[in-house]
Amino acid sequence: MVTSEIAPADARDTGPRPGSPLWGYFTAVIVLGFAALIAAQVRLGVGELADAARTPLFWMLAVLVVLGELRPVMVSSSNPVGGTPTSAMFTFAVLMHYGLPTAALMQAVAVVVSGGLRRRAWHRVMFNMAQVTLACTAAAVAFAAFGIHPRTEAPWTPDGMDIPALALAAFAYFVVRASLVCSAVALHERKPILRVVKASIGPQALVYGALLGLAPLVAVVMSHSSALVPLFVAPLAAVHFTATLSLRRDHQATHDGLTGLPNRKMLILHTMEALAEARENERVGLLLLDLDRFKEVNDTLGHPVGDRLLQLVAHRLSHSVRPGDMVARLGGDEFAVLLPSIRDAHAAKEVASRLRVALTQPVRLEGMTFDLDASIGIALFPDHAPDFELLLQRSDVAMYLAKEHRTGVEFYASDKDRNSPERLSLLGDLRMAIESGDLDLHYQPKVRLSDGTVEGVEALLRWWHPLRGPVSPVEFIPLAEQSYLMREITQYVIKKALAQAGQWWEAGIGVPIPVNVSARDLLDSNLPEQLESGLKELGLPVDAIRLEITERVLMTDQAYIADTIKTLAEMGVHLSLDDFGTGYSSLVRLQRLPVSEVKIDASFVRRMTESDDDEQIVRSIVDLVRSLGLRAVAEGVESLEIAAILREMGCPAGQGRWLAKPMSATETAVWLRSRLSPAFVSRAADRARLAPH
């Protein structure tokens, strides 16, 4: 069982600190609002109220106002001021029909009932009572400017000549209520008021315009037949239902489904807003947080427990930041915290330390107690980066420094960044190399160990820099993954490999070409479409290309369950699991993943002749893979002795420099022709001719 700590709570229910600007603002509004409410009630005689209360219309309207307060209209989850209560329509109608005292009293009662049922803090209830009373008072003053003074004993019914008065009163009501609420939100979240107004005024004006525009119709119906007033609930219900569907779609697009936190998309939007509005003497901070021992929980108790743990972590994080800060989940056990306005580095570190303290509190799940910890990297604008992409990258660098040094919290430091400044320059060169097609493919054959039959040629990316010369993939591939160029590289490699396969199959050399893809590529829904269209365009069978995914995919929930993998399997694309043995694999996941072969990492294979432990590891992997009904392929076959040991183990195939080194496309074609038998070439040519065009 997970404790009730996971239950969400609204941070606005935390009372303002006495003496703070927000406390002073709340106090002023509440005093003014209650003064206006008392003054209005003094004008309302007890006899007048008693007479009105004897009519069914009075109680009908009171119920509708309360229900409307309980059912606000939300049009966007990113609206900082929240929803618009539908009670505004009936309150405004009561204001026109019975006057300010009755309208203010009904609305105040509705706010108290709503606050009690929702268990809102007293200061929120009092502020809401005050701001809606002041809004009603402003509307009543606007009506008075036109000589309109409705009372319970003399109700007023608007007609077509009263449109200017109605428009002014509605405008006054909206302006007062919106300005009071936006100011409170701006002070609470420490945001510029113009930013809050800009983000909320559009949706608020739209909904208030519809509600206040219907209120005169309600007043007219009230004067003719009170029994018809409940019919207005129908259009309100339709508006509420439509807004709820829109809000749900908006929420799903911008929030994480498991924790309910904002996702990367919303984080990017809010970070860009914060960067655009950053003041000269302030900083914008981005914290990247990764749990240190989360994988142990997943592996020990399973993913359902791990998911509940992530929900608890999300709750603790969101309740440990300042008002206005944003906690987002990026995926897995990785979270980000945006500090839109931070004084200096010391203040950012205080927030990070508070987050770590919140997470280190013991967690009890499934009868066991866990001690969590986290590593946090901090990057600041403009000190460390000028935009979101670099902020995220450099906070990631800082986070890995915190993990590596076991310090818990680290700031970005350029002298400790392996990507800076030379590698950042290399990143720009890599981007241009992709665009100009300067990256090349070499191919390394995969050979059946029993008879030397060629089973495929793996495509390996090579880059010859005009100034640096050859750049190792070990250097630029991690750089691409950090800078989100990996998707473009994968598309580039697949396109080039398909073109090469088309040439070879047309020439009768029908060998598959495996291509490496990352876990992130498996989240790209365009990957199957690119493969399918490329194969169709070149008239190639589906087994002309294969995909190799790293073992890390078994550790990534999103990639593992991605629809892309299912689509690829349905297409008949063969998947291989690369670098097996270097990560932390789940055998259950390995069995369920639709892979046809497992490639044993070269680091174990190369040391087999020197280490009995490594030989035993390779033997165990070969036996395990065979028991799962999959094929094993050994990488790093560097000698005849290693090949002989692998054959004795029953390993079907191998790959390495002793068998064949990586070669250019031309060299590979010559090598393949020398190794493929005439019968094999003939069969391949027949298959190429029979492939659909």
Give your account of this protein's structure:
The protein is α/β, with parallel strands linked by helices. It is built from 26 helices and 18 strands. Strands 12-11-10-18-17-16-15-14-13 form a 9-stranded mixed sheet. Strands 4-5-3-8-9 form a 5-stranded mixed sheet, with helices on both faces. The longest helix is centred in the N-terminal third of the chain and has 32 residues, at 193-224. The two termini are 58 Å apart. Residues 1-10 and 687-693 have low confidence and may be disordered.
Q: Report the structural category.
A: alpha/beta
Which overall shape is indicated by the principal axes computed on the Cα atoms?
elongated
Beta content comes to 5-15%
Regions with little confidence, pLDDT below 50 for 5+ residues: 1-10, 687-693
Total helix count? Answer: 26
Strand order of the largest sheet: 12-11-10-18-17-16-15-14-13
